[in-house]
Amino acid sequence: MEGRDDDAIVLGIESTAHTFGVGIVASKPPYILSDVRRNYKPKSGGILPREVAQFFSTVAGEAVRTALEEAGVTMRDVDAIAVALGPGMGPALRVGATVARALASKYSKPLVPVNHGVAHIEIARFLTGLRDPLALYVSGGTTMVVSYLDGRYRVFGETLDIALGNLLDTFAREIGIAPPYVVQGRHAVDVCAEKGGFIEDLPYVVKGQDVSFSGLLTAAIRAVERGLDKADVCYTLREISYSSVIEVAERGLAHTGKGEFVLTGGVAASALLNEKASKMTILHEVKFRRIPPRYAGDNGVMIALTGLLAYKSGIRPLRPVDAVVRQRWRLDRVDVPWYPMTLGGY
Q1: Helix ranges, 21-150 (H)
Q2: In whole angstroms, what is the distance from residue 51 CA to residue 47 CA?
Q3: What is the pLDDT of residues 244-297, one digit of tens each?
Q4: Which secondary-structure segment (H or E) carries 155?
């Protein structure tokens, strides 16, 4: 890796959706020094960006202080500030960016921009030990099949409308089984589907290398409104949606010839999705390792980790005045010169 060879500590800030996360990562073991998260949970309905931003603004200072205390370091020990500048919800992103700009200015630290999607893949590569995988990135805002080629991550396939996580959350809310959307690591749709069986006539839509979920969502809600058993509809929606993303991932493996596969993003915590991925990769003799569920979803550690890789590879930090949020910042627009390096080596 070209750039800085000395040891470094980076503080990372995540605020793209419902989690305000602060992580501190070092370039030598034990690598992860602290991982603080403050999650916004709506009492009813979906997530409103202005309410998330208000929540973040009340917890940000405490989260940064707690992360430093857990790591046993001070701002003097931190070499750079990394911040997720997108993609995500504008009001929420602006809180994280404001905190990062303030810290960088007050303590004269380099400010490293991080793409949230790239960070999800980097934390998966680091924790699974898989260095050159095809990645299925599934979350509330993103559904993509991603592979590295010629200096950047490239999108092999993606959703044409709503993301897989959005499908699950919206369906759960519309039929009255959420919020809360996730309890003890299990999504409300997974719990609902436990005693269900497969029913006919819900659409399975795979178009080439892409998937589509909006028609499935509408058909599933109407099926419940017609009086079909909720458990059966939950089971069928889950089976169709999970199978469709695994199908496009399978096509991606065949097309790219990659010998490794990872899941990442919030939905990657699903035990059933991991089971389907495992069976598919065994069939194709591809190496698969599960990301620890705690690091499937949003967190500050993945931002600090990616910021550290960028910082040490010589990517030029931003002036605080230039650190503006980019709500639709795609991961295939970001250079990743450190690839396949991660913390600890190749």
Answers
A1: 49-71, 90-107, 116-128
A2: 8
A3: 999 999 999 999 999 999 999 999 999 999 999 999 999 999 999 999 999 999
A4: strand 152-158
